[in-house]
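For consistency, the fold was encoded as tokens, which produced the following:
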Amino acid sequence: MVVKKQMLNQNSTSIETAPDFDTSIRIEMALYENGGSRGKYLNMAFNNLLSIPIPPTSVESERAFSSSGYLCNHLRSRLSDKTLDTLLFLQSHYKAQPKI
């Protein structure tokens, strides 16, 4: 985790830079929940979470789900999860290949 690495790389001996990351975050979260402000490590964790691009919906996942419905129907209902994953991977791989 990026925040944990940043915390461990600091060379300060103050109480704020305790070596136990989980304990520091829990203390800062408890203080924040009781009406305080975000501490240094909680703020770093918050900023790192905001920097992760997570789309609210994904067209690719919807397409994969739809494709799995075509592959796994009442005639092919005994396909294992691994086989279905492999078939979907191969289908997407070959669709991405340039046409010759």
Q: What stands out?
A: The longest helix spans residues 81-96. Residues 32 and 38 are 6 Å apart (CA to CA).
